């Protein structure tokens, strides 16, 4: 709210005044009401491997994170640039591979990547769009600039929490929200549906049928799958609900087969089609990739997009922006040491206690080391892991992440936050609703904001100018 102890930021002054005048017990009551609302709606997420609770209520903080319109304008320009560049990159590596010929990226980072899909080579995707939905994680560093932490391009989740957080705040704090001009996010679902319909195959219908493909109710993000399908007014389907005939995808209905034009897939590539990927998959649709290659259905996001959100490829994104767009990246990357490179690995080994080490294909806060908060034994274990497979690790400095106030038992207190804006890319361009999902580390001093690691969420307000 006040930077490094200075005056209150302009964007937070209305909130500060409201907090100063609010009765002492009001926030406690509102916090309890928020928890009851979330329980009533049933907003949960699953924690794999946790024996104590298969489903948890995601922790929610009632103090909003607020950004000025000027801050958002800069951030959204950078997000749009990044989304466009990554789509161009995917189009290139599954096509002419000019960036590899130019020596910008080592070919082995592509061809040895577990998310590279040779089945996509030479395939012309609808509208030239590989990533229709991206969740790009950003942080503010040193109370000034925004940095990108990672690009989530496969099946990014969290948008349902963003929307539900706003609905809860509207119910609990209508007076506070009426005091400011907060840009709306409620149109995200309409924008998502519009984006999906914009990439209908050329052979598809003028009134395209869109479905959301889910792995099923045991998936950690199943609540979000059902939430989005319901809000978009499209069918939520599992693999068994779809069938491929003559390279055309149909949905089984009580009125007979109905042709499907666009599949918003929340399935990992490996499970999409047992005839092409994992033969033991019971979640996918046999023949789906044949229908996709024939141009009879669009899969969003496209198979193989994971090669571009790999943490080693992440370190090349400024070069990717420069190569395809002839521009400097608006949003900075966090400095990254690739352990596959001898000099970088030597530096990481010598400074492990000061660095954050991540698996190249890791996610959810798993498989990482936060050096300053780790014991000597933990650092030694990671040294052995890195030596055994250096290609699998990157390291970054421990950033001075910005904090946002949260409401605790003892009052307001600062906690580290990040932000996941959701970037939609269709045939007709890039759309970004103003805001995103702010994730917050609820433990004092913690830098890990993932819900699977004990983090929570809060509403994000972007003010109109």
Automatic annotation (TrEMBL):
Pfam family for this entry, one: CP_ATPgrasp_2
Occurrences of domain Circularly permuted ATP-grasp type (ranges): 64-441
SUPFAM superfamilies: Glutathione synthetase ATP-binding domain-like
Name of the molecule in the record: Circularly permuted type 2 ATP-grasp protein
Organism name: Microvirga brassicacearum
